[in-house]
Design brief:
Strand content: under 5%
Number of strands: 0
Number of domains: 1
Order of helices and strands: HHHHH
Shape: elongated
Helix content: over 70%
Number of helices: 5
Radius of gyration: 16 Å
Distance between the termini: 8 Å
Length: 131
């Protein structure tokens, strides 16, 4: 992979995050994934993280098919990050009107960004860099 290819792969992962978290995440997913499991959190989180896993699988299959398992890892990591954010903000009573809601939201997004950086490093380590 060239250095330009690495930059493109990084941008592909950033686009994946934008599409999956903001375009394809339904109101149901947003309003339920922080609730108790019996109140729909499991279904909402499964749907949301499933979308992320499918997109990660598509990216990984294109670049390094042997890393297909990253899609499963992404599913569980994304679920953990989102669940933690949702439970924390709900327990604290923070809404979009509160500064701390946005602080936690920013930490959530940066955690996803860092996970994508990890995937990029694993892909590049697998396929190598062309000079």
């Amino acid at each position: 992979m060239t250095y330009l290819g690495i930059l493109i792969l990084y941008l592909v992962f950033r686009a994946k995050q934008m599409i999956c978290d903001f375009v394809l995440q339904s109101t149901y997913m947003v309003t339920h994934k922080h609730l108790a499991w019996r109140d729909g959190a499991a279904k909402a989180l499964l749907q949301h993280c499933g979308i992320h896993a499918v997109f990660t699988l598509a990216i990984v299959l294109y670049y390094a098919p042997q890393l297909w398992w990253l899609s499963l890892f992404d599913f569980f990591l994304h679920a953990g990050i989102d669940r933690l954010k949702g439970v924390l903000t709900k327990k604290a009573g923070w809404t979009y009107n509160d500064h701390m809601f946005w602080v936690v939201f920013g930490i959530d997004q940066e955690a996803h960004n860092l996970s994508h950086l990890l995937y990029l490093v694993l892909i590049v380590a697998t396929i190598g860099i062309a000079a």
